[in-house]
Design brief:
Blueprint: E1 2-4, H1 10-21, E2 26-31, H2 40-43, E3 48-52, E4 54-56, E5 59-61, H3 64-70, E6 75-81, H4 93-105, E7 109-113, H5 133-137, E8 139-144, E9 157-160, H6 164-174, H7 183-193, H8 198-220
Parallel strand pairs: 2-3, 2-6, 6-7, 7-8
Antiparallel strand pairs: 1-9, 4-5, 8-9
Helix pairs in contact: 1-6
């Protein structure tokens, strides 16, 4: 694990590009997509292809047929957001395996933004790198305690990079790029993951579920409304 100050920075994507494309690979991801990820073309100084997800009455799924049509020999990186921001999908093992198979077929590196992994209200979050050895060795997972512990203002995130060669490249590129970690951020990160906050995290998820259910109930009372989501 490599610690740094923010989850999304161009160096994570650049390191992935170097591994597969010698620095010339373009970036591929589904839309809708979190705004900062959509700034990666400028931050990573790389071309990007955006592929719309399938949408049916505001329900979204990954469109692998469209993905196959969009990928080119120049594509080097696939950016995965799981749980997905903004549509809220928690991808299943089958869906993630499809991503891994697609990445292997086209020799793509996967950069996985999993910052919302502990805010799953239903279902199970499956880390991309845990799927198989291929996914483990050809991916970078970016995460932070900022969402689950409500400390986004503290500059401390981390990258899970099982591949030792890629981890070394990432560390070398990070030298002088990120701000120096401070004791306040380090202490907060430790508290977020040492088990002392587990009960509080569960209370938070219960509170968010109640908010969601309340919103669904109110929306259902609106005449002529669209069908509400079923979770």
């Amino acid at each position: 694990m490599v610690q740094f100050d923010q989850v999304l920075n161009r160096k994570g994507t650049n390191c992935a590009k170097w591994d597969r494309q010698g620095g010339d690979g373009s970036i591929l991801y589904f839309t809708p997509m979190y705004t900062h990820i959509r700034r990666l073309p400028q931050e990573a100084r790389a071309a990007v292809t955006e592929v719309p997800m399938k949408e049916n009455n505001l329900f979204y799924t990954m469109d692998f047929e469209a993905l196959e049509q969009a990928v080119t020999p120049q594509t080097g990186v696939y950016v995965l957001c799981n749980p997905h921001n903004p549509v809220g999908l928690v991808f299943t093992r089958q869906e993630l395996t499809q991503v891994a198979d697609f990445a292997k077929k086209h020799e793509l590196f996967v950069v996985a933004d999993e910052i919302h992994c502990e805010l799953v209200l239903e279902g199970e979050h499956i880390p991309y790198f845990s799927l198989n050895k291929e996914a483990e060795q050809n991916s970078i997972t970016l995460c932070s305690a900022g969402k689950i512990a409500n400390i986004p203002g503290l500059p401390l995130a981390y990258a899970i990079i099982p591949n030792p060669d890629l981890r070394k490249r990432f560390e070398e590129e990070a030298l002088g790029l990120f701000s120096v970690r401070n004791i306040l951020a380090e202490t907060a990160l430790t508290a977020a993951y040492n088990g002392s906050c587990d009960a509080w995290k569960e209370e938070l998820r219960d509170y968010l579920r109640a908010n969601r259910d309340y919103l669904e109930a109110r929306i259902s009372e609106i005449p002529g409304r669209m069908d509400s989501h079923e979770f």
